Amino acid sequence: MAREPFELPPLSDAEREILILDAIWDLSNGLVNRHNMTIHFEEGNGDVRFSSMEAARLFSILLADLLSEPSNVIVQNTSDYLKALTEICRAPSFDLAKEIEYLSAATSSFHDWLEHGVIYYGMWMPAIWLECDIHMTRKEALKLVGNISKHNFTRLTDSASKLKRYLARTNIEITPTQAMMLLEDFEVQFYEDVFHSYRNMLASHVNNIRRGMRIYLREKCRISSARNEQGLHYFVRPADLANDYVADVFIRLMGRVLHEDMYQEFGVAHVYREMF
Question: Per the confidence metrics, is the pTM higher than 0.85?
Fold first, then answer.
C-alpha cells in the first residue's frame, strides 16, 4: 500500500524558525545537562566528565542527530540543523533587541570546528587486518560514530558506504562487504579515542549555541509574557502564527527561555583544543 504523503500547511519564515530553534534547543538539552555530565571549572575552562558510559553513548547519538538533516516537511532545502541555524542568524525573525550576534558567532565557530579536515593516523582495523590513515572532517567522523552507535547492522549500509568513501581518500580501496566488517572496528577506535578527546570542545560549542538562543529570544520572551486576573503567568500567542502546532511550540520555546537552567559559558584548555 502506497504511503500517504504527509504535508503541513505552508509555513512562514517565522513559523519555520520557531520549529528549528525549539528542535535545536531540545537536542542541546539532551547533549549538555547536569544529569548526564558534570563540568569541572578552573580558570574559565571546563572539563567534562560523563556520569556513565551510557550517558556518553547517548551524547554521541544525539550529536549525530544534531549534525543530520531535519525533515523537509518543516525545513526546506537545508542540509542540517546548523545550516538552518546559520540561515536564521542571517535573517532572524525575532531580533527585537539586536542580540543575534552571540548566536551567530557561536554557530559559525561550531561550524568551522566541525568542518576542519583531519587525518587520523594509524587506525587499527583487525576485522580485515588493516592499519590505515583516514581523512575526514570532524563532522564526518562524529556523525559516523553516532550513527553506528544508534543503529544495528541492518540499517548501516549507508554508514558502510561512507566509510568506504573516506578510506578511498587515502587510496585504500575496500569492498562493500569489508566496509560492513569494519564498522565495529571503526566505532571502537573513534568512540574510545577521538570522541572522548572532543568532549570538552563539543560541550562548549553546544552550550554556547543554547546560550545564544536564549540571548536572542529573551526580548521576545519579555514582550510575550503576561499575567491573568489571578496573577498567573502565561505567554501571548503572536498574531502572525497561523499554525496551531507552531503556536504550541512557541509557548514551549518561550518557557525554555524563561525558566531553563544552563551552564555558564566556558572555554577549553589548550591541550584539548589541539587534539585531532
Answer: yes
